[in-house]
Amino acid sequence: MTALTFTKGHGTGNDFVLFTDPEGEITLTPEQIRFLCDRHFGIGADGMIRAVRSRAIEEGAASLAEEPDAEWFMDYWNADGTPAEMCGNGARVYAHYLVTEGLVAPERRDTLPIGTRSGVKDVLAGVSGYTVDLGRWRLSGERLVAARGLDVARPGLGIDLGNPHVVAALAHAGELEGLDLTQQPALDPAPADGANVEFVVPEDPLVKDGVGRIRMRVHERGVGETLSCGTGIAAAALAFRHWGGEGMPNHWRVDVPGGRVAVRMFPTEEGEHVSLSGPAELVYRGTIELPESE
Ligand SMILES: N[C@@H](CCC[C@H](N)C(=O)O)C(=O)O
User: Which residues form the active site (predicted)?
Assistant: First the structure.
């Protein structure tokens, strides 16, 4: 048996098991990741984040080529033991973890570039949480979305934020509450690599004081329903702005079962970026015996 020292953290209830492996010496099997994330037999989490130096793993080379200061790589895995390209809530929690553990130099703490499978993301520390610049995004076509609790399938807008999302608007809050997301929503056509599926409704009024306001529930690829999904929240705000057309704001407030997150779209030299601001909490530290991999 191997003992693993871990920290449990979350961003608006999207929870993660984090551990430090600076030199890339701990490779967990999908089975061990599923065990750590299991809410009954393990610690319980939506995903696992290994803090590893970019130079210590093959996947980190692209991050260092993009940004030599991206010392740390966010090695993110879903609860089902599959890797994901990116995690918006995870990036905030990861930055908080690196700072709390003293793994980044004080001069790096205000804007911290972290390596991910979908490029380097800058995380900025603020007074009431962290902001992660999710970078560029793109529309990726339409799909029909069927889910338990919906009478008919709804049109969904595909949005790629490094990881894949499909956003479907529902008619009213009752429909959102009536959804049964214990089963994976069906997408038509089905994306080859799966997708995170967001269901959204507007608040009344949709825009107040220049801020767009929506409510969302999500079924995450590789996890199931979660209390929040950062990249999904950004996708939902982008979809609503797209549907609303001219005059829609670039600032959004998104309520999810786990809390509230802010989204901002802003111009950069390479095109529009989208960012996510919200809390990051570390709640528990411990040691767990890992089952041997088979
Ligand atoms: N919860 C995350 C997204 C995690 C990865 C996702 N399940 C996927 O497979 O793409 C977030 O906050 O963005």
Answer: 87, 229
